[in-house]
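Hi, here's the filled form for the chain we discussed.

Project: internal
Contact: R.S.
Residues: 553
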Amino acid sequence: MKKILLCLLLLCAVGAQAAEKLPDNMYFKAMQKEMARSLQKLKIPGAPKIFYVAYKLVNFTNAPKVLASLGELYPQDQADSLLIAYAWVDMGTPQHDSLGYRHNEYNNRYNYRPQYERGVAKSYEGLRQTLWDLTDQAAVFASETYQQKESYKRTKTSDKQAPKVDFIPQPQASYVQEISPMPPYNVQDLQNWVKAASAQGKAFAFLEEFRIIVTPLQKETYYLNSLGGFYQYAQPMFTIRWIAKLRNKDGYKQSYDREIWVQDFASVEQTLQTHTRQLLTDLQNMYTAVKGDTYLGPVLLSPQAAGNFLQALFVPNVQNTSVLLTQNGPDSEGGAFVQKQGMRVISNAVDLYDKPLWQTYQGQPLGGFTPVDDEGVQTTELTLTQNGLLTDLPRSSRPFKNSTRSNGHARMPGLSLPREQLTNLWVEAKHPQTAQALKEQLLAKCREWGLEYGYILYDFPTDRNGRVQRALRVYTQPGKPDQWVYGLEVNNPNVRSLRDIVAAADNPAVIHFDTQSDLIESQSIIAPSLLLEELELTPSRTTPDKPPFVKKP
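And the returned structure, exactly as it came back:
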C-alpha cells in the first residue's frame, strides 16, 4: 500500500529546509548536500549573492519495449533507464532577481531554461558531481542574466511598468509517495498480445506499415528547493503506440500515429484488442475516402478533436501569465487571455477546470498530476471558466497584476524554467447530450443553413499546417450514407471559435500532450464531443504520387 504524506510547510525564509522530513534516499541526500554547498560557498566575483537554488531529478526506468509489425516481433534492447538532472538558481534579492528575463529568444545561450544533463550516473557520487557542475553553470548564467535584466530595466522599462518585486516567496509544501519498483508482468503474454494484434494488419493489402509498440515504464520525479519545498512520486504505466502508413485509392500517402496510456498490465490486452480493431476500421475507411472540398458551416468535433481544439486555441492563451521581460519585444509565449479575466472567452455550454491532483481518469494515467509545483507550492484546483467567463488563471511566485499569491501552477514546459502552466484540463458539459443527439443537431443546423451536408472531425490541427487527417461527411438527406473524407485543412483557426461551441456530449475521453519529449512534463485534457456553430474547411494542396505504384510484396 502506497503511503502518501501531504503537508504544508509554512517556510518562507531562505534555506529553511525541513531536513528531517526529507525522504532518506541518495537523490535527496545528493541534492541537499550540493544545495548547502552552493548557498554557502558558491560566489561569482562582482555578481550578487545566490538566494535560491532548485533541483529536479527525473528517473525513467524502462522495461524492454515490445515491438511487432504485421505479426512479426522485432528484438529490442534490454531494459534501460535514464536519469535527467535539472538545476537553476536565482541571484540578487526577491525585489530584483535574475529570473523572469529572456535576453535573446533566438539565441540558445540565453533561452529561458535550467541547466540540465541527461544520462546522469545513478550513484550518490555521480549525482553530486553532476549537480555541482550544473549549479556552477546555472550561477554563471544567472550572473550574466542579472546584469542584462538590470540594464534592460534601466533603459527600456518605465517606473510604472517595472514590477515592485520580482519574486514573492510562498508557503512551501511537500508531497512524498513511497516509491516501489515497477510491478512485475508476464513478458511472454505481452509479446503474444502485441504480435497477434499487429498481425491483423496483414488482412489489409493497402497498408504499407502497421506497427505496435508497447513500452512498460516508470517515471520517478524528485524535487528540492532552498525554501523548503520538496516532492517525490512515481508514475508507472504502459504506453501503447500504433504507427500505420497507407496509400489511399487516389494515391495519397497517409500516416497515422496513436498512443494510449494504461495504468496496469491487466488492462493492456483488452486495450490492445479494442483499439487495434478500431484503428483498422478507421484505416479501411480512409483508404476509400474522397478528397474534401471547401466548406463553411457547423462542425462536430469528436472527443479527440475537441481535445486538440482546446489544446490549440485555449491552453496556450491562459498559460505563461507572468510575462517575461525580453530583449526582442513582447514575450512571444505570454498567454493572450492574461488581460481578459472576467470577460467572455468561451461558450457557456461548457465550464473548464484545471485538476492537478487527478492521477487517473477512468483507469488511464494523467500526464498533469502535480501535487506540488516546481516552486515548491501546493497546487490548487482552478475554475478557469464559468458561464463562458474567464474566472481564473494559473499563477506562480512571480507577480501577476495585483496578485501576490501563487496557486501552485509553476511547471517546466519543454526545457523552460518554471512558468505558469495548466495540468489536467477537464471540460464539463453544462447540459450533456448523447453523441447521436449532437449529430442530429449538426444535421438540423446544416438544414437551417441550406447545406447538403456537414462534417464530423476526428482530429483538429495543433500545429501550423492546419491539416485534418480524418473527417466524416454526414448528409442531411435521409438515407444517404455518410462519406469519409481526407485532405481537409482548417482555414485560419482562431480563438473566436471557442465562443462558437453550441453543445457538448456525455462521452469524455483523455487526450495527452507532451510539453517536452520523453514524457518529462505532460498535460492531459478530458474532453467530450463539441458542436461548433461555424468552421471553415478548405481542401489541402497536397498532390498524390503519380502512378504506377509499386505494391507491397
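Let me know if anything looks off before we file it.
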